[in-house]
Amino acid sequence: MKITTKGVMFVAAVAANVGLQGNALAQVSPEEAAKLGKELTCVGAEKAGNAEGTIPPYTGKYLGEVPGWNHVKFSGDQPVDPYANEKPILVITAQNMGQYESHLTEGQKALLKRYPTTYKMNIYPGHRDFRYPDYVCERAMKNALSAKLVDDGMGIEGIGQVPFPIPKNGMELLWNHQLPARAYTEEKVSDLASVLPNGSIGWGRAYARNLSQANSPTVEPKTEGQIQAMSWNTTLKPVRDNGVVSISQEPYNFLANPRQAWSYSPSTRRVRQLPGYGYDQPMIGTNGTMTVDEDRLYNGSPERFNWTLIGKREVYVPANAFKPNTGDIKYADMLTPNHPNPDYMRYELRRVWVLEAKLKEGYRHVYGKRVLFIDEDTWNAVVADNYDSRGALWKHAMINYYYHPDMSAWQAGSQFFMDLNSGQYTGYAMTNESKKGPILNEAKFTPDMYTADAARAMGR
Question: What does the alpha-carbon distance between residue 92 and residue 97 come to, in Å, rounded to a whole number?
Fold first, then answer.
């Protein structure tokens, strides 16, 4: 059953939100799985455009290439915008937002109302022209027929990419966001900017090398391997924290194998284990505008929230966001007071899955409710609205994803976390002024590089 009103499509989700008990089978019927690669893309998106023609049909005509970007593999060259010559087809402002509110999130509407003279949304023509490698499609099909949730959704059993291409409940949708097809290895230097309402900026910079076994292009990543991803982060700025190293290991099952994390301090030359790392612990350098579990809009254990699949909507979200990640844009121009410069942002009308998280009784978190908007083509959350414990809208966040030839998938570019009360915000994972952009899938990292012993070696 589908209900369409004012251009917003909702999917009936009564069955999709039944509480999970024990191990929940997620397999769909062979007949339903057979839609993958036909009326659905191989990872589960609707191939057709919408009836109004404002969302285009999926073409997937480019694999491992971006027109106009003469990319040299593993070079770290900055992205080139294939749509640089396009002009906005619509500009949404505080004055005309009422005409388009069915395609806006509550956070977007709040920004337009609060900053009527400076905030706007440039809407561009939609494009669905890039695709995943065949191995991603093959794994998604296998998962559709065999993957399942275990331990009340705290873990999964299956293959580590796109576990539920046809999701039936909120927990399955969350795991799709946690385990989309993305980089197997990632190496980058990125910048963090904490922007105060008066425009002053506190800076951070970090070197990251990440290994995601869940995205191995050569070895089918079975969840029995326990660890889905590992990260290494070395702080470069501010100077007082230079050399601080953080390491973490992300499991496939947060009940059986909780996240492991360690920190190395060059001042003490000691390694500390960080039990319970994540959740609403403040991200260092963000003045409280970002929590640890907000990287990629949500990460980590699902245990503190009840997750509900609300349905699908047509929403203006960041898409094909090459422009805000190019080396042509300087931070001085992009990081304006209260919100990033809207002239550098690109929005398209997209179909998104809406995932709502409400804090469980007896659990603690600074957010009482979170709403994630997950792009149907990629399973990446691209926008989030976060509410305080009283139910008041508090923060709005967005990620500028773009297709990267190194891995033939979508790379998380700059992320922005805006406090609607204080007027401050954080720009996160920005690489515009780095010497190099991200280097992806070079496959030069190994699991032994992400342990407490590896951190201790820093002090020898």
Answer: 6
